Input
Amino acid sequence: MKYDYKNLFASQHEKFTAILGQDYFSSLLVDDDLSDSAVIISDKRVYQVGKLYESGVRFPGGGLRVSRGKKIVSLLDITGTASKEVSKPLPGSALIAFGVLAATLGLLTDVRQSTYIMLGIALLSIAGGVWLLIKLRKRYLIIEYAGGSMAQPVKFITNTELNLFQGILSDEKERLMSGTGELKECANCGEKIHLSAKICRFCGEEQKDPTPEESR
Output
């Protein structure tokens, strides 16, 4: 599939490196519309588009706050990544508690038929509660950066894919950092170019000679 990044990247000169997200093989970046959430790495920045999961905000019932939009972070601001499980224990725990209560009431009644009915209800409730506890547990890739973090669901992502994505992110940051000491920003387009460049290779603007402070 050929992706269209012109409406995604902050600069037309950025190069796509990697992508991670549910349904990303079929729907990502098609007409700038995402059915879920995705994290995209370019050679300069990290983007999260579609659903944005706020890892620092928790509801009382568990889970993460979700909004829609686009988040852009420079690779140089990334401080680390981690895999984390987040659960919503309230629905499952409530159902299990109801099952325990039903079982208790069933054992206390003197009517045998009522006991069987209450125990049956209790069994179903406890089983449903355990299923909910497992079903509502989700795994996220947390990408920490200066000033915050982004969380990406990775329920259907294998450990191999996840490790590869984290490795690519780390490699791209190291590659970018290795060249920042010899680069400067073009005053016209803002792209990074070599410190001694006379003409910007992106926009063709003639460059002024670097000051003594810039040359150090």
Q: What stands out?
A: Residues 33 and 112 are 59 Å apart (CA to CA).
